[in-house]
Amino acid sequence: MATPTDRREVILERAADLFAKQGVAGTTVREIAEAVGILSGSLYHHFASKDEIVEAIVDGFMSDLVKRYDEVLSSSDEPRTRLEGLVEASMRTVAEHPHATEIYQNDARYLQAQGAPADVRQHARSVRTAWIGVLEQGVQQGVFRSDVPVKVMYPLLRDGLWLTARWFQPTKAYGYAELAGDYVKVFLDGIGAR
User: Of 119-128, 130-139, 159-168, which range is least confident?
Assistant: First the structure.
């Protein structure tokens, strides 16, 4: 018999799968309960609402992402190295939280409309601050170009990065570190022949 903690984890896993496939708004509590193999009412012994389930999924993803970003930022002062580190940390976090990534990206409007919890909002600010800080540092040091505003660079980098979750399959020969390196090369050096 599953312990309450195990049951909670199973609920989060099955709900994340459903939310990623159907969207948060398109998924009912009954569907989550059926996927777990319990009655709908029993779900409320573990979570107060569907929104609380969404918050737990997204908060776990964002907490992990922020922790990895903090490690990257404390490991180097060089903007290009930091940028590559943020890219690789993002890709690894996406790989470990694929459904949460999809929920966060695809249901951002739903999360905003429901009033994302303070922890999720704080994590989102930390993520943005990390990227903006690295980009601004690179511009100031002459490592990154200054003719494109950082407020434009950031969403271009961010959105291209999150979309890799939909197509990238790492192999032994070409993993996250290699993709992160190539991703940074394309954005910093362009695609023109050298």
Answer: 159-168
Residue 81 contacts by C-beta under 8 Å, 6 or more apart in sequence?
Answer: none
pTM more than 0.90: no
Whether the CB-CB separation of 165 and 176 falls below 8 Å is answered with no
Query: Using one digit for the tens of pLDDT, what is the confidence trace for 38-52?
Result: 998 999 999 999 989
Instruction: Report the greatest alpha carbon distance in the chain.
Output: 63
What proportions of the chain, in percent to the nearest 5, are helix, strand and coil?
Answer: 75, 0, 25
Which SS3 state, helix, strand or coil, does residue 38 take? coil
List the chain domain ranges. 4-189
Q: What is the pLDDT of residues 91-112, one digit of tens each?
A: 889 889 989 988 888 877 777 7
Q: How far is the CA of 34 from the CAs of 28, 37, 39, 63, 168, in angstroms?
A: 10, 5, 7, 28, 31
- Enumerate residues 6+ apart whose C-beta is below 8 A from 104: 58, 61, 62, 111
Q: Per CATH, which fold does 4-189 belong to?
A: Tetracycline Repressor; domain 2 (1.10.357)
Distances (CA, A) of 18 to 8, 30, 164, 187: 15, 11, 21, 34
